[in-house]
Amino acid sequence: MFKALDLPAEKAGGGENFAEVVRTRFKVGSKTIGVFVGEPVEVYTHWEGEYPNSKFAGVCTGENCEQCQEGNKARYSMQINFLTTDESGTPRMTIAEGPASFARALREKEELKGEGFFDGTVIHINRTDKTAFAIDDIKPTPELNNLQTILAELQPFDLKAMYEARINKQLNNADTSTTTPY
Ligand SMILES: [Zn+2]
Fold this sequence. Notes:
The chain is of the alpha+beta class and about 180 residues long. The protein contains 4 helices and 7 strands. The chain is globular. Zinc ion (ZN) binds next to helix 1.
């Protein structure tokens, strides 16, 4: 009966279609060990109010973003897949997210050490201040010793697709000018 229907593709749910996300946030004073995987993604979000009491006001939707047009400058952050261990020492893939100062510190380290430095390298990150990150390569911990095997089992998140889904979801939600009668 319904076989011949030419249904539109299902909407991306902006989250629910993706594997459960665990984030690594590098709080001030924290020390984190892990390995960066794949390429970083640059994310722009809008916030209302002043730090630290600012409230999330949505992702920046790009060229025609209303919040940008209203003069609310988008905040930059960088995301990248980050293999680390949970409390029990089990390796898990997370999304590392940090501000521009974090991205800058990583770029400076890479410039110093050379292209490819971060590939398969176990890193120790010490956030000593809001904008200060000490980044060092260390000997692999026992949990992260067999990187190739671990990485063959743990899928990285599709960060680009996730960001696009968030933007699309927001654009769809904001669209109140629909002429659909139901
Ligand atoms: Zn914007």
